[in-house]
């Protein structure tokens, strides 16, 4: 309940309400883009400052290895579950979206943990970057395998009919190398990593100088951005209506399964509770910005309303409102 009374979360709910009421309230796209870049820059600086204090250690490398492992486990499980229930191209795209991560969910979780006097390691911002691209690679590779499957290979379409995979590939699809280059050099990734490097190099002196920017403004900027996200969620409710109950269940319950696997891994590796909570959040989140933008061109056979609508219309609000406090509770209960 405390999470729902947080001003940033209340602005998110207000945005959903305003969007549902068909209000003309909107955040201009350039402003929304700036807010996104600000949050990533501030997050990177915070992570760099924290990493400068803690230093690189075996525990840091173990946490990053766990994040990388989850980045492969989640899309593999998702594709196996969905491949015989929807078109296999749709299954690959959905698995890619859910195997990747949501930076906004991560930022909100960081704010929640700090408000509850928990201090995750600065390296977890690196985990955010580490978990973004493996799912894209897997989704693109699966799509290429489907395109070169023997003629007559049958997959279910979203409507339940048959879809035949082409034996000769699809004209106009960018080569894998170009797709991977775009995913690895995405501006948001580079900004996050660059800000983290700057924070690490500048250390305590940089932290003191940048505190008004990275700390004092952070909460208000996050609230403004979540207002915009609430408006976006409301606009995408329509894409969720009428979808298969299997997809609705996957978008609702899949994140809980992914978070449970992450918690089991954190227990095995004896990660700190705050780091484990963030690993659960990352594993349970789904990308609705970077990955859909890449998959729209990399897998044009897939239906964008499925992987975008499910991640933004169902998984994102569930994680923001309920998931973050739930994952934090179980992480602290098991590992504290």
Describe what this molecule looks like in 3D:
This is Sodium-dependent bicarbonate transport family permease. It comes from Hydrogenophaga palleronii. Keywords: Membrane, Transmembrane, Transmembrane helix. Pfam families: Sbt_1. Helix content is 75%, strand content 2%. It has 336 residues and is mainly α. Helix 8 runs antiparallel to helix 14. About 5% of the residues have low confidence.
Condensed summary:
With 336 residues, this protein is mainly alpha-helical. It contains 15 helices and 2 strands.
List the SSEs and their pairings.
Layout: H1 7-20, H2 29-54, H3 58-82, H4 88-99, H5 103-115, H6 124-130, H7 133-147, E1 154-156, E2 162-164, H8 176-184, H9 187-216, H10 218-235, H11 237-240, H12 245-269, H13 273-284, H14 290-298, H15 304-335
Antiparallel strand pairs: 1-2
Helix pairs in contact: 1-10, 2-9, 2-10, 3-4, 3-6, 3-7, 3-12, 3-13, 4-7, 4-15, 5-13, 5-15, 7-8, 7-14, 8-14, 10-15, 12-13, 12-15, 13-15
The dominant shape is globular
| Total number of beta strands | 2
State the helicity in percent bands: over 70%
Distance between the termini: 22 Å
Q: What labels would you give this structure?
A:
336 residues, mainly alpha, Na+/H+ antiporter like fold, 75% helix, transmembrane, membrane, transmembrane helix, Sodium-dependent bicarbonate transport family permease
